[in-house]
């Protein structure tokens, strides 16, 4: 057996992901040593409660409630606690004490990434975070390394497994939102506080990370436009299906031309998370369950799709261990770590300047001239109509003889050509205020056609 240099690995957290990482590190120790060129010695596992039940059996003597002491003298620190504190403090301690860090913590990287990467740069350490976006799917390395010579134009990602699980079950089975959320929680996909999933915070954190890598620009979380899926109901799902779409929570990261005088190219970027209509023929429409997918459009490479398990303990552990092997190889090879590339420094535009297509669903009075009034409001707002479908809910013709005219109700589904978000939202406000519109049922963006 080859004798390798020993590297001391500290694991912080033994929950859904951490317990699987520990188990695989111990079980595959010899294979990992051959691949890393170093023996990865699991020095200890820091948790809150040593007696808490674990998903897998792990040697009790490895557990500690003293992360600070465990970190001292470690070569690689794996942070799988989650959240901001104490994860931030432990990571900074690890970096300044000479360790490389592996983390899956998107919440921390999206909010304190600059501080962590700057600190790592100062001491020549590396921070690896493949598991922070889309669980098991390799997407950080492809964006950071494989596509570093290309120009990424657009990313559309399903990057939250919980919401994809919920929307998929609602679409396929007509399931109710609350029932499916409880199942996603029981399956271990949801964050400790599931509002992070359903209100789009988790996807926004991942979008900020993806956009930073794709556009070589530090994207602050506050610059990401975020909407969740709480407003999506069965009627919207049915209407989407009827029109040939499926509703997905998307993270869209886009390079925009001619947006700014601040750079020679006039380029800016948009980073946004919202539920959108995706044509059923688009590859993202066939992403089911808790799976994730990231669809990347690059200048030279063309369209690329990265697909797989976006959540789950053992699946995410795969990405974490890949990072551990990379960290070990770098540690053995020596030299300084490769920092983040953020020098493009492109401005992030507000949502109002984004252009996309929309589907507006209205309930209107079934009266002569109503369609013309609505078309006029859209035209005045510089929103061009691409399609209109009308369904009579209560037809004037069906009313009892002698009933007052105007009590019939029609549902109008208007598909627009590409429009600017600012124009669209002002137009929707005018529609809502119009006498002929009983109710704006929904406004959804259309992406991917
Ligand atoms: P869990 O909540 O399952 O586990 C958290 C672990 O951290 C527990 O073992 C807990 O200890 C420990 N812990 C919490 N606070 C402290 C503390 N103050 N000191 C020491 N240990 C502490 O989290 P997950 O495993 O689900 O997630 C870990 C990370 O991976 C997060 O950043 C998450 O966003 C990310 N991630 C998770 C995925 C998933 O599918 N679960 C997928 C992709 C990324 P104890 O057990 O004693 O309570
Ligand atoms: N809660 C997250 C999700 C876990 O549902 O995708 C993976 O980051």
Automatic annotation (TrEMBL):
Keywords: Amino-acid biosynthesis, Methionine biosynthesis, NADP, Oxidoreductase, Sodium, Threonine biosynthesis
InterPro entries: ACT-like_dom_sf, ACT_dom, Asp/hSer_DH_NAD-bd, HDH, HDH_cat, HDH_CS, NAD(P)-bd_dom_sf
Protein purpose: Catalyzes the conversion of L-aspartate-beta-semialdehyde (L-Asa) to L-homoserine (L-Hse), the third step in the biosynthesis of threonine and methionine from aspartate.
Catalytic activity: L-homoserine + NAD(+) = L-aspartate 4-semialdehyde + NADH + H(+); L-homoserine + NADP(+) = L-aspartate 4-semialdehyde + NADPH + H(+)
Transferase is among the record's keywords: no
Family statement drawn from the similarity comment of this UniProt entry: Belongs to the homoserine dehydrogenase family.
Official protein name in the record: Homoserine dehydrogenase
Top-rank taxon: Bacteria
EC number: 1.1.1.3
Record keyword Plastid present: no
PANTHER family associated with the record: HOMOSERINE DEHYDROGENASE
Cofactor or coenzyme needed: a metal cation
Pathway connected to this protein: Amino-acid biosynthesis; L-threonine biosynthesis; L-threonine from L-aspartate: step 3/5; Amino-acid biosynthesis; L-methionine biosynthesis via de novo pathway; L-homoserine from L-aspartate: step 3/3
Organism of this sequence: Microbacterium pullorum
Residue intervals of the ACT domain: 359-445
